[in-house]
Amino acid sequence: MDIDPNFAIARNNLGVLLYELGDISGAVSEFEIAYALSDGLNRDISTNLGIAETVTAQTDVETIVTEDNVTFDVIRFGHGVFRLTPRNIVGEEDPT
Asked: For position 63, what pLDDT does the model report?
């Protein structure tokens, strides 16, 4: 980030890290910056922003509920691009 603060992928990956650490508002901020830097053309960034915005919209509720109570994994795609991915999409089965 110090070398190139306008590198959309780095901003996206920072957003994923913040999301994983529970800083959803910080994640949304980073995803929004990454989205703008990529002119909205990067599908991974768009997906991550959508997920984080959905979670943010649900923060008024005591428990955050996702569709079908899906949990998200951080998955690496391509050259260092990380995406929040619903666990059931990547083929991992729910242990319960």
From this structure: 41
Q: Which residues of 8-18 are buried (b: 16+ CB within 10 A; e: fewer)?
A: bbbbbbbbbeb
Is there a domain that residue 42 lies in?
yes
Domain assignment present for 27:
yes
Tell if the pTM clears 0.85, that is, is over it: no
| pLDDT single digits (tens) 77-87 | 666 777 777 76
Cα–Cα distance for residue pair 15/34, rounded to 1 Å: 9
Which ranges of the chain have pLDDT less than 50? 60-66, 89-96
Query: What DSSP element (H or E) covers 18?
Result: helix 8-20
Two tokens, residue 37:
């830097």
The verdict on residue 69 lying in a domain is yes
The answer as to whether 20 is a domain residue is yes
Burial 59-92 (b: 16+ CB within 10 A, else e): eeeeeeeeeeeeebeeeeeeeebbbbbeeeeeee
The total of structural domains in the chain comes to: 1
